[in-house]
Amino acid sequence: MEYQWDFAAVFRHGDLLIEGAKGTFALAGMAILIAFPIGLLVALMRLSRLPVIAWFAVIYTDLFRASPTIVLIYWFYFAFPLLVGVDFNTFTAVSLTLGLQTGAYMAEVFRGGIQGVKAGQWQAAKALGMGLGRTLRYIILPQAVRRMVPIFFTRLTELFKTTSLAAAISYTEIVQMAQRTASDTFRPIETFTVVALFFFTVIFTASQFVRFAERRFAVPE
C-alpha cells in the first residue's frame, strides 16, 4: 500500500515546532556564550609554563571530551544541583553541559590556532614592550582566529545538532516539540522530515556565511 503523505497535519501544529525552534536557538546561543570564553581560558592554561595550571586544563579537556553528552546532561540536571545546593531548570542544565563540553573542544582549537602563529610575532610584540594581554588581543588572537574559522564552524555545527539531546530531560526544543506533534497528528514521518529540513536549512545557511568569512579573512601565506 502506497504511503499517503500529509504535511498539512504537521503545519497545523506549527506553533509547537516554532516554539521548539526558539528553544533550540536559545540553547545553542547560551552554550556558545559559555564555550568561547572557557575555551580561550583553558587554551591559555594549557600553554602556561606552570605545570599545575596546565595539568588542570588537561584534566578538564580530557574529562569533557571523553564523556558522552547525554550522560553529562543527566549528571548536570540531577547530580550537580545536589552538590551545589541550587536547583537547575532544564535550560540551565543543558546549556551548562553543552557550553562546558564545547568549551573543552574549543580549547584545543584555540590552542592550535595560537601555536600556529609564528614565534616572530611574539618576539616583535615583546620588543615593542607589549604585555601578554595586549599581545594576545591585538596581535596573536586576530591571526589565530582567522585560521580557525573552518574548525569553529565544525564545532558549532556539532553543538547545534547536539541540542536535540535536550529532549531527554523534556527541555522545550524542536525535537521534543516534534515528538509531541507526531503524537498528536500520528504523522511522525512528515514531522521529522520537517525537523530535518529545519536543521539542514540552518546549518547550510551558516555554512555559506562561513565560506564567505573564510575568503574574506583568509591569512595570506
TrEMBL record:
InterPro entries, alphabetized: AA_ABC_transptr_permease_3TM (IPR010065), ArtM/GltK/GlnP/TcyL/YhdX-like (IPR043429), MetI-like (IPR000515), MetI-like_sf (IPR035906)
Gene Ontology process terms (BP): amino acid transport
Pfam families: BPD_transp_1
Record-level Gene Ontology MF annotations: transmembrane transporter activity
Statement: the UniProt record of this protein carries the keyword Transmembrane: yes
Family statement drawn from the similarity comment of this UniProt entry: Belongs to the binding-protein-dependent transport system permease family. HisMQ subfamily.
Protein name (record): ABC transporter permease
